[in-house]
């Protein structure tokens, strides 16, 4: 089977049975999921989905978690209508598929979402988080977008931006110790390059025994051995956003 050759292990994990507390909106040419806290706030977080797209219940669960911590959370469709990856797809076609969805070419969409958050939601302090494909997108944005305050990259694919480390904003990098597509030597090299080139606050943290996707693709109730690390990763993400937003 061609699926035995998998360039990305993003199908590892659990699909949450979760409906979401927010609503879907149209932001110019982009569809998005947005959730707002009951009390007004001027703090917002853009949530960048993984290869499974903006409608994945797991990602909406994290967006809602941000809202329960006081943030407006918005998860736009950064594939802009193109199909998200499906677990049933042939992994042999993945490289061709991902070439048409470049994590480094989302600037137009981010600008549209930033304008919406400022004009329609009253947001003044805006951060970004992202998972896998979205984690790589976070690194890209932290290198160049002056309007974002901070970012959290969760198991972002390092090789997408392996030669770029001069971050503009404080950035937190989350990795799993046993991630099949992000070897620890890549993480070590990232740390070395950041130490040499980065002038802002950053942190790189490796979570013991964890695989790709653990923060949003594993359920605590059926992965008890991973529960402490799942919860720690989520808490660290929130604490970082609280610190810089």
Automatic annotation (TrEMBL):
An annotated Gene Ontology molecular function: hydrolase activity
Annotated GO CC locations: cytosol
Domain of life of the source: Eukaryota
Keywords for the protein's UniProt record, in alphabetical order: Cytoplasm
InterPro entries the UniProt entry points to: AB_hydrolase_fold (IPR029058), CMBL (IPR042946), Dienelactn_hydro (IPR002925)
SUPFAM superfamilies: alpha/beta-Hydrolases (SSF53474)
Location of the Dienelactone hydrolase domain: 30-245
Localisation: Cytoplasm, Cytosol
Keyword hit for Cytoplasm: yes
Major localization listed first in the record, in broad terms: cytoplasm
Family membership noted in the UniProt record: Belongs to the dienelactone hydrolase family.
Protein name, per record: Carboxymethylenebutenolidase homolog
């Amino acid at each position: 089977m061609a699926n035995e050759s998998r360039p990305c292990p993003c199908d590892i994990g659990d699909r949450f049975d979760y409906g979401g507390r927010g609503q879907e909106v149209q932001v110019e040419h982009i569809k998005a999921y947005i959730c707002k806290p009951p009390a007004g706030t001027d703090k917002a977080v853009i949530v960048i989905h993984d290869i499974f797209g903006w409608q994945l219940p797991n990602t909406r669960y994290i967006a809602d978690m941000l809202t329960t911590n006081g943030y407006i959370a918005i998860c736009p469709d950064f594939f802009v209508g193109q199909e998200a990856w499906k677990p049933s797809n042939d992994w042999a076609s993945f490289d061709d598929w991902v070439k048409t969805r470049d994590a480094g070419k989302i600037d137009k969409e981010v600008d549209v979402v930033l304008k919406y958050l400022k004009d329609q939601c009253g947001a003044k302090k805006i951060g970004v988080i992202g998972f896998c494909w979205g984690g790589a997108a976070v690194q890209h944005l932290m290198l160049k977008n002056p309007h974002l305050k901070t970012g959290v990259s969760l198991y972002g694919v390092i090789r997408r931006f392996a030669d770029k480390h001069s971050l503009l904003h404080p950035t937190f990098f989350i990795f799993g110790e046993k991630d099949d597509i992000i070897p620890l030597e890549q993480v070590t090299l990232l740390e070395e390059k950041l130490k040499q080139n980065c002038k802002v606050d950053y942190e790189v943290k490796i979570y013991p025994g964890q695989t790709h996707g653990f923060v949003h693709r594993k359920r605590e109730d059926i992965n008890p051995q991973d529960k402490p690390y799942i919860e720690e990763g989520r808490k660290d993400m929130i604490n970082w956003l609280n610190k810089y937003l």
